Amino acid sequence: MRILLIILSVVVLSACGSTSVQRMDSKETIDLSGAWNDSDSRMTAETMVTDVLNRPWINRHVSQKGKSPTVIVGNIKNLSHEHINTNTFVSDIERELINSGLIEFVASANQRGEIREERKDQDLNATDATRNAAGQEIGADFMLTGQINTIIDTNDSQQVRYYQVDLTLISLADNRKVWVGQEKIKKLVENSKIRY
Amino acid sequence: MNTIADIKIITSQLFILAILAFILPGCATHNKGMSEVANQLRQNLPVETAVSKIKTLGTESNSSAQYQLNLGYLQLISGDFKSALSNFEQAKRTMKALDAISVTETVTAATVNETLTSYDGWPTDKVLVHSMMAMAYLLSNDLDGARVEVLQADVQMQKLAKAKSTQGQLAFSRYLAGVVYELNSEFDSALVSYRQAYTILTSRSEPSPKPLQQSLVNLTARLGLSQESKKYTKKFNVTPSKQSLKKQFIFSFDGVVTQMSQRKTQLWWSIDDVYLSVALPQFTRNNYIAKGASVINQTSKIKTQAIEYIEKRAREDLQSEMGKITAVALARAGIKFQTVKEMNKNDSTLGAFANVLTILSEVADTRHWGMLPSSIQVATAQSSQPTLTVTTKFGNKSLTISETGNSVILLSSLTSKVHVTNF
């Protein structure tokens, strides 16, 4: 009968609970499931930005062309075991590189459609003084492409999750790869074998 | 004569038993409702009506994964891919969170019954949820999303194989992975997956469907594995098909899996030298007869062939757990017998009442993913024309397919809707 009492208590108590919200610093690292999270995205972006800004390709381009390199973001393929939103760390990288003043970005293939539509609309509806003409876009010098790969090894309660992010900057003039960045993240995830 | 203390104990015991008697039927009734909907689907209940009925039934908190799996599957075949993905994702998370053994639920299962534990999915469910999500992503034209799910299915199958080599190993999931890789032009990975599907079928002594045979022959030839290609060509009597032609991958979900039911049986309890009545889950006889669909292109009529018999997988899952389920049921019956005996000593009326309640509380856990098809069938066509005709029990339907790329087509025996995505 004591067992029955315990069970009933458990059934009743498990129904009790409330929602709590705690605000925190967006740079704080919190790992809940071991899956790719905002911290991985941010750390990958930081590593890639530091690397890309300290390589000779920028100076070489400036000395050859007399202007900052212009980059377009191409396809960043998610080949991992998770549904990863690559846009977050790509926009982190974009922001840091634009703010560095050393690199310029142009709208990606996905973004420019909307811009062109707006320009067409301006052509019809905007005043001459404010209208932006077609055919004035800046052609990119380099395209940033990449992929995220994972290797997962698992047993009953442990999992090793290995992420490898590869980004490549390719010259649109001659297909030369001018920079290859790589970031590796390895996590050991241990799940409890027993729960309450 | 009873003292006040005795009366208090008896009253509290009675109270607890009465509460349990109220709680228990809820879980069983809810599952029964699900099974009834599944059986009605077999009798031509429209899928959309079944979705409404399932939603009306709602879910017990400890059966949320079962509810989401059932709902997700029906939404998938009715073409509501966004809702299907949402439900499958939640089910996946719930089942993962329930991987660990619960102390309280183990105690509850051993003392009251197993319907009070959380539904964490059978091995087939744990793999198939990824494959169904991959289907939903494919039909939403999200090849990357589908690729993620086939990778997750692979991890899950590896994990299950470590526990028991054949458990949760699905030829359909491997074949679907092959299709996803092939659509992504990753032909080496596609071949690996097709080989794995073939190995699973061979180990079960089940025939491999023609599309799988054709894919093995085509990809080994394409990748320059001439010896292996010759071996498959000879074995299957199939020659490599033209690489230049676009391909249509057809999947057909046929029937509704048999519903798990309860049977009462007597088991010997040696501690008290008595036979005790226990409730155990079972599947009734498998009366399923596969019915295929057909695809007609400009040159031929191609019939779908089974790659996975869910009827068999569901039975295998239950069979592999039966030893454990029976042992727990017997131990539980023994505890209940002792409790009734103890109460009987205090008060014979209370003892009799407790006896009735323990009999009522002895319910088998018959929860499973009951909306699944009885079999999953596949076919491939290679058509250079912009249309393709599919023939199902609902009649002929002309489909517009990609003129330049490959297509994925989903059919179900439960609905006349045919879903096509062109890549």
Overall description:
The complex is a heterodimer of chains A (196) and B (423). Helix content of chain A is 36%, strand content 29%. With 196 residues, chain A is an alpha/beta fold. In chain A, strands 2-1-3-4-5 form a five-stranded mixed sheet, with helices on one face. In chain A, helix 2 packs parallel to helix 4. In chain B, 55% of the residues lie in helices and 17% in strands. In chain B, strand 3 and strand 4 form a beta hairpin. Chain B is built from 13 helices and twelve strands. In chain B, the strands form three sheets. A five-stranded mixed sheet of chain B has the order 7-8-2-11-12. In chain B, strands 6-5-9-10 form a four-stranded antiparallel sheet, with no helix packed on it. Chain B folds into two domains: 4-38 and 247-422, no CATH class; 122-243, Serine Threonine Protein Phosphatase 5, Tetratricopeptide repeat (Alpha Horseshoe). Chain B is α+β, with helices and mostly antiparallel strands and 423 residues long. Classes of the chains: A alpha/beta (196), B alpha+beta (423).
